[in-house]
Amino acid sequence: MIPPGDLIQTVNGGTAYATFLTLVLAASTPLFNASSIAANVIGATNDLTRNVAVRSWSHNLAVTVGIGANAWDQLTGLPRPAELRPFEAINGSQYAPATPGDIFYHIRSDRPDLPFEFERQLIDQFNGSVKVQDKVTGFRYFDARALQGFVDGTSNPVGSLIDPATRVNGSIDPNGAGGSYLLTQKYSVNLDKWNQLPTDQQEKVFGRTKPDNIELPDQAPADQKPHKQLTTVIVNGTQHDIVRDNMPFGDPSEDEFGCFFIGYSAAVWVLQQMLDNMFIGVPPGKYDRLLDFTAAETGNYWFVPSLEMLLTIGGN
Ligand code: HEM
Ligand SMILES: *[C@@H]1O[C@H](CO)[C@@H](O)[C@H](O)[C@H]1NC(C)=O
Ligand SMILES: *[C@@H]1O[C@H](CO)[C@@H](O)[C@H](O)[C@H]1NC(C)=O
Ligand SMILES: *[C@@H]1O[C@H](CO)[C@@H](O)[C@H](O)[C@H]1NC(C)=O
Ligand SMILES: *[C@@H]1O[C@H](CO)[C@@H](O)[C@H](O)[C@H]1NC(C)=O
């Protein structure tokens, strides 16, 4: 159970449901200052979360809010975290688009009505100061599997390793102290094409066995490396982990299948290195074969303020 008081910053999820809400600021008028209204709502996120979470603490409503680089100054008035920047499209062996977004809400719970109620009250409070750019509702799929059938999230840091991997070290970057950089990408999955690939080939794509999630040995240097190898970032002998909480989403009747990727990190360069390895390849050209079956449709970087920083945003 998530302890009261740390609702915003709990990033190691594992909940049954999640809503991923990407918002853009509406236009302001002389009588309607959109960014000032939105800033008040953002700064009150912890109160709003409690209002809803208290109705069933045991179902782990947890909310984090991220702010995009282009909206940071007007929404927060705070000095910029060192690595805060917009996501830039990657045009490598595969393509990753950059898409609009000023504010992002990651809303998780073990039952669907709590995220629904949080979103309802949130949108009410924004009172027209934001427009919804994108909204995805994801669900836990069997034993934490992606729609491709593989267990997702195994290598996430746990326990005392979460904070060093996800929170900015204040002595390196005082403006970001205690907060987290966040990458979100909505992917569509071509399940028909993927399911035509024999299981032993699928296992080579991820670098793990499908039924029981056992790690396979790394590929020979000449081969296209598996996903798990391309996303392992080791610099100067130190491995840099991130915390992911991806969720499948979709609508079989509409032939819609997807994966919402979400990764929290203490550093943007770690996220960018993983993306470059996947989309450009190692060496360039030897990209992540997952991307032959899975296409990125959105791309955003966010900064998630620490609870302490969040409480200074808006006119609270
Ligand atoms: C649709 C997109 C994606 C799917 C379905 C997916 C799925 C998976 C799966 C099944 C694993 C192996 C099990 C595990 O350790 O969790 C994995 C590992 C991993 N993925 Fe992804 N992934 C996706 C995109 C990404 C992206 C965009 C990044 C980073 C920018 C990323 C970063 C990682 C990392 C860091 C690991 C762990 C590597 C290790 O240390 O073993 N993934 N992913
Ligand atoms: C990606 O680069 C290729 C080759 O330089 C170019 O033809 C293509 O238009 C680019 N795609 C996008 C979406 O910018
Ligand atoms: C919501 O915005 C409208 C203007 O669009 C304003 O008249 C109204 O007072 C606002 N409501 C709240 C609760 O701020
Ligand atoms: C933060 O960085 C400083 C300077 O590199 C280092 O001495 C300290 O151990 C780091 N703190 C944490 C919690 O990692
Ligand atoms: C790795 O070491 C080099 C040389 O000492 C240094 O310039 C670089 O900043 C280090 N990289 C990281 C991520 O620590």
Automatic annotation (TrEMBL):
<comment type="similarity">
    <text>Belongs to the DyP-type peroxidase family.</text>
</comment>
<dbReference type="Pfam" id="PF04261">
    <property type="entry name" value="Dyp_perox_N"/>
</dbReference>
<protein>
    <submittedName>
        <fullName>Deferrochelatase/peroxidase YfeX</fullName>
    </submittedName>
</protein>
<keyword id="KW-0479">Metal-binding</keyword>
<keyword id="KW-0560">Oxidoreductase</keyword>
<dbReference type="InterPro" id="IPR048327">
    <property type="entry name" value="Dyp_perox_N"/>
</dbReference>
<dbReference type="GO" id="GO:0020037">
    <property type="term" value="F:heme binding"/>
</dbReference>
<feature type="domain" description="Dyp-type peroxidase C-terminal">
    <location>
        <begin position="143"/>
        <end position="308"/>
    </location>
</feature>
<dbReference type="GO" id="GO:0046872">
    <property type="term" value="F:metal ion binding"/>
</dbReference>
<dbReference type="Pfam" id="PF20628">
    <property type="entry name" value="Dyp_perox_C"/>
</dbReference>
<dbReference type="GO" id="GO:0005829">
    <property type="term" value="C:cytosol"/>
</dbReference>
<feature type="domain" description="Dyp-type peroxidase N-terminal">
    <location>
        <begin position="52"/>
        <end position="140"/>
    </location>
</feature>
<dbReference type="InterPro" id="IPR006314">
    <property type="entry name" value="Dyp_peroxidase"/>
</dbReference>
<dbReference type="InterPro" id="IPR048328">
    <property type="entry name" value="Dyp_perox_C"/>
</dbReference>
<dbReference type="GO" id="GO:0004601">
    <property type="term" value="F:peroxidase activity"/>
</dbReference>
<keyword id="KW-0408">Iron</keyword>
<dbReference type="InterPro" id="IPR011008">
    <property type="entry name" value="Dimeric_a/b-barrel"/>
</dbReference>
<keyword id="KW-0575">Peroxidase</keyword>
